[in-house]
Amino acid sequence: MSAEPRVAVVGGSGAVGRTILRLLNERSFPAASVTALASSRSAGHEVEGVVVEDIETADLSQFDLALFSAGSSVSEEWGPRFVEAGAVVVDNSSHWRMDPKVPLVVAEVNPEALEGHSGIVANPNCSTMQAMVVLKPILDAVGIDRLVFSTYQAVSGTGVKALDELKSQAQAVLDGTTPDPAAVYPHQIAFNVIPQVESFKDGDDYTTEERKMMAETRKILNLPSLAITATCARVPVMNGHSESVNLQTTAETTPDALREILASAPGVVVVDDPAAGVYPMAVDGSGRDEVLVGRIRVDDSAPRSINLWIVGDNLRKGAATNAVQVAELLVKRGL
Hints:
Elements: E1 6-10, H1 15-26, E2 33-38, E3 46-47, E4 50-54, E5 65-68, H2 72-84, E6 88-91, E7 120-122, H3 126-142, E8 144-153, H4 160-174, H5 208-221, E9 227-234, E10 241-249, H6 255-263, E11 268-270, H7 282-285, E12 291-298, E13 305-312, H8 316-332
Parallel strand pairs: 1-2, 1-5, 2-4, 5-6, 6-7, 8-9, 11-12
Antiparallel strand pairs: 3-4, 8-10, 10-13, 12-13
Helix pairs in contact: 1-8, 3-5, 3-8
């Protein structure tokens, strides 16, 4: 790959695509050119100073690197086409994540996995992503035997229509009127918590989001037999996912020891003085690339068990920032 690759952002008109375009500029990514691609419906619109072009008419051979954030069906169809044309693809969708031939990479956690890529690199689910940045340093220090995830996920993870639905419903409730029927989610999201993120498949009591989180965690941490469970909920928060994580370590440790480990971990900020009202919150994590962790405390109900509270910006580190970081690593390593 060229030291200054020609970059395509596929899905450049969407929420994550827009953020990728912004981050490429903010981080001074060494690109020879940046092109935003999307469907013909978005072609001609300007996003972050870049005019969106129609992917159907684009010459794919002009790109060295393609950052995808346009959904699984687009990634399935167009990812291989970009690879065949000579580009390396960093994909934000779920389509390639569990393919054994495709590395699933968090920049601070397993960058070595990039060495084996065959043209496509996958970005994890946003909820998985922020947890991995915190859990990998703990795994390296004391081991992890079991994980319990409970997530509280913001509506921006679903897209612009979900944000509009939250705003509309909230305004209606505050005005004392009946909100329009829910369209994006199965129930009203304003002033509510929905214990369902994504869908249920026949015969499975876990949602597809929960299954993703469990499977991706095992793959990224290279722990195929890790005991893990997850419950994912949607909350009426505009941006920023929050997670309660309960973990059982292999070796004995203490909250103080973990605070010290995490304080020096890349991409992590320890925010942990609960008596003073200092702990990670979605409003503080939104707009940041670091993952915030606090409420680090002993779980007295089980041996070697610890509770954590983790917050991250689901559009930035949960998707766009990691994609750009992975692209930076690909360029730096000549991959």
